[in-house]
Amino acid sequence: MGQIAFWSVGHGTGVTSSAAAIASLIGCEYRIRTLVSQPQGEENTLERGFARSINTYSRDLTTDAGTGLDALVRLARSGKLERETVKNNALLIERDRLDLLSGSERMNRLQFENAGELIGNIYAHARSYYDCILLDIRSGIDSPASRQALADADLVVVCLNQNAGMLERYFDRSAWPEELHGKKQLVLFSGYDARSKYKAVNIMRKYGRREPALTVPYNSDFRDAVNDGDIKGFIARSRSLDRRHDNYPFIAEVRRAAEKLLEEIGVNTRLKHVDAAKGAS
Description:
Helix content: 40-55%
Distance between the termini: 14 Å
Structural class: alpha/beta
Order of helices and strands: EHEHHHHEEHHEHEHEHEHHHH
CATH class of the domain at 2-52 and 127-268: Alpha Beta
Number of helices: 14
Number of strands: 8
CATH architecture of the domain at 2-52 and 127-268: 3-Layer(aba) Sandwich
Shape: globular
């Protein structure tokens, strides 16, 4: 159905945490096959955020030869990618709903960037198995692998904060890579402070953007869950919170964002929701 890239003009805008929260919500509430991945060659912060949820059997698959993107790059070079190859090298988060494909642990930055085309082919093959692919890609414009992911994306979620300098860099288009021009985009404010005068609606109006922005509000309990490696657990526990609970605004906005992204890539969210009538496919 679609590949969604989470990207920002600069670092420190909550790209990873926002992608992880939305992926977890989709895994909890929708009957679709979803893959979340961080195609980067230096750190696996996405995987650490799911540490408590990674299936024990998946951990046992790790070998000295490497797993995740490392294993898949070798298979891609050998022309051995098949429909379920990515699935077989991914980590199980929610059975039949959410898998995580870990980034490289063996390639240095240069090796990783030189493998950008192969990595693009890996995610292209993943589309034949997964309904939704969420990629947390490197911010900025200096990464060939990230630019390839932007080029291949059906939708780009641009993660911003409420910093005036960051906003100028994005909205004046001076920090845009070539691959972003003409691409379907949605703006998402991460770590959002609803009490700030820099409200999402005001920012979008200032820069002449008519579409509503998405938000992932700042939430201390969620930040703790990220550090504890329990993102999935936090999202699962928060799904049925009462409106009066302090964490309700956070989960409500993550749910709104997840639904919007799925609709943008052609998923019938009513039909695929876990509460939909049994027997629907």
